[in-house]
Amino acid sequence: MMMFHQPSPHRHHHQQQQEQQPPSSSPEVDAIIAVTNGFLRALSAKSPVEFDKYCIHAGGMSLWPPAPLTPRFCTIGVFVQHISKVEDEIDERIWDPEVKVSELGDLAAVWAPFRAKVNGVLDHVGVELFVLHKLEGRWKVTGLADSCRWPTEEERELFL
């Protein structure tokens, strides 16, 4: 996990160097990662009530499935409505997340590779980008984008 703060142009060079060395973890980074993982648990549960804890329904999504499927764009709310009706078992996981937080501490981004299993079988892999805002002291997913592809045979064996 990495956390970057934009250095203020009004600080001394020495202070800028110290800020650019990201800590491996912090309470803020941990809270951000907890929200992204909560969002993915809500996806597995297909629960609108669980999604409400972690996201803003008016936020946007850009989902880029493997070729030859076409990209989809929708609000998070429309996505939640769709997912709540899906009968398949969904298990999506991220790892090695990179976290960036704005200097004001009200905007964050999480970039992470992911894999998605459908009914226990590896279906697609790729990268996800979560955009989060701190609203009333709590982090919420306000945007999400992904780009994915079909897994290789090696990945299918790796993610059994």
Word description of this protein:
This protein is of the alpha+beta class and 160 residues long. 30% of the residues lie in helices and 39% in strands. The protein contains five helices and seven strands. The protein has helices at residues 13-20, 27-45, 48-54, 76-83, 153-158; strands spanning 55-64, 72-75, 90-94, 98-101, 107-118, 121-135, 138-149. It is globular. Residues 1-23 have low confidence and may be disordered.
CATH fold description:
Nuclear Transport Factor 2, Chain: A
Shape: globular
Mean pLDDT: 87
The residue fraction in helices comes out at 25-40%
The parts where pLDDT drops under 50 for at least 5 residues are 1-23
**Could you give the order of the helices and strands?**
HHHEEHEEEEEH
Question: Which oligomeric state applies?
Answer: single chain
The first-level CATH class name: Alpha Beta
Rg over CA atoms? 17 Å
How many domains, as an integer? 1
- Straight-line N-to-C gap: 25 Å
> Structural class of the helix and strand makeup?
alpha+beta
InterPro entries: NTF2-like_dom_sf
Region (Disordered): 1-27
Biased composition (Low complexity): 17-27
Task: Please describe the structure with a list of short key phrases separated by commas or semicolons.
alpha+beta; 160 residues; seven-stranded mixed β-sheet; Nuclear Transport Factor 2, Chain: A; 30% helix
